[in-house]
């Protein structure tokens, strides 16, 4: 046995889960069912098991709440303030995830007393979870300007108005329709389909699909995806 002279701590993962309902960017939260802070709103989390990495633990926690795998998941930051959890000395590794709201298992959400909240109107959270959400939102906004990660929040097929609405929801800013379309189409990473979505109007709007091969070609050329929002 090695390192016996050192203190031991609990290690946890917490998941900041973002979704988009077509109008608003939302945050998935759970009502905590055990002390401390029982009955209060919290991020979904769990403790690290002895046979898994922190990344594996984050995937497990996310799947446990949503039923989803193979989604966008990124490590955000490690939180280790001594008194951050009144129950025990716990070091938490925070992750943020982007999921399609229509795809997640709603029965699991009911099981864990989970609810979606608009990103501008979510309740006060336990411990340092408010800080985690704020940092995750800043990271999402920064990366959405330099990588096409926003498409992770949309259905596979979408319209340009839906795409613009997503970016407006992420950045909480209205965007000029002409300028947005000029910028997004100028990257040439979208595949225009022959079908139209006619839910919004009789004329309808053409559906598009994100083309990962075109995006990879863009990266290979050294051009990249830069959608600055001011």
Describe this structure as you would to a colleague.
The mean pLDDT is 94. The protein has two domains: 10-135, Nucleoside Triphosphate Pyrophosphohydrolase (Alpha-Beta Complex), CATH 3.90.79.10; 149-220, Winged helix-like DNA-binding domain superfamily/Winged helix DNA-binding domain (Arc Repressor Mutant, subunit A). It contains six helices and ten strands; from the N terminus they run ββββαββαβαβααββα. It has helices spanning 54-66, 106-111, 129-144, 160-171, 177-186, 212-220; strands at residues 10-20, 25-31, 41-42, 44-47, 72-79, 90-98, 114-118, 157-159, 190-197, 205-210. The protein is 29% helix and 27% strand. β9 (190-197) and β10 (205-210) form a beta hairpin. With 230 residues, it is of the alpha+beta class.
Unreliable sequence segments: none
CATH superfamily of the largest domain: Nucleoside Triphosphate Pyrophosphohydrolase
What would you call the shape? Answer: elongated
CATH topology of the largest domain: Nucleoside Triphosphate Pyrophosphohydrolase
Largest sheet: 7 strands, mixed
Q: Which CATH class of the largest domain applies here?
A: Alpha Beta
Question: How many domains, as an integer?
Answer: 2
Q: Strand pairing plus helix content: what structural class?
A: alpha+beta
Distance between the termini: 56 Å
Rg, nearest Å = 20 Å
Count every beta strand, where a strand is a DSSP E run of 2 or more residues. Answer: 10
Helix content, binned percent: 25-40%
SSE topology string: EEEEHEEHEHEHHEEH
Average pLDDT level: 94
């Amino acid at each position: 046995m090695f390192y016996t002279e050192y203190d031991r701590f609990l290690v946890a993962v917490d998941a900041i889960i973002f979704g988009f309902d077509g109008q608003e960017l939302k945050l998935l939260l759970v009502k905590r069912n055990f002390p401390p802070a029982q009955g209060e709103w919290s991020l979904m989390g769990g403790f690290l098991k002895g046979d898994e990495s922190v990344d594996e633990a984050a995937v497990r926690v996310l799947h446990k709440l949503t039923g989803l795998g193979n989604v966008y998941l990124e490590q955000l930051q490690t939180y280790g303030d001594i008194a951050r959890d009144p129950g025990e000395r716990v070091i938490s590794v925070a992750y943020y995830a982007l999921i399609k709201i229509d795809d997640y298992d709603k029965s699991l959400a009911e099981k864990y007393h989970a609810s979606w909240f608009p990103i501008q109107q979510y309740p006060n959270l336990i411990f340092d979870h408010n800080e985690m959400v704020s940092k995750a939102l800043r990271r999402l906004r920064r990366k959405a300007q330099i990588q096409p990660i926003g498409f992770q929040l949309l259905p596979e097929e979408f319209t340009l108005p839906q795409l613009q609405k997503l970016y407006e929801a992420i950045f909480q800013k209205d965007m000029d329709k002409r300028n947005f379309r000029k910028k997004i189409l100028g990257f040439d990473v979208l595949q225009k389909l022959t079908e139209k979505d006619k839910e919004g109007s009789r004329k309808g709007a053409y559906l598009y699909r994100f083309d990962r091969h075109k995006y990879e070609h863009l990266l290979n050329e050294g051009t990249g995806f830069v959608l600055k929002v001011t």
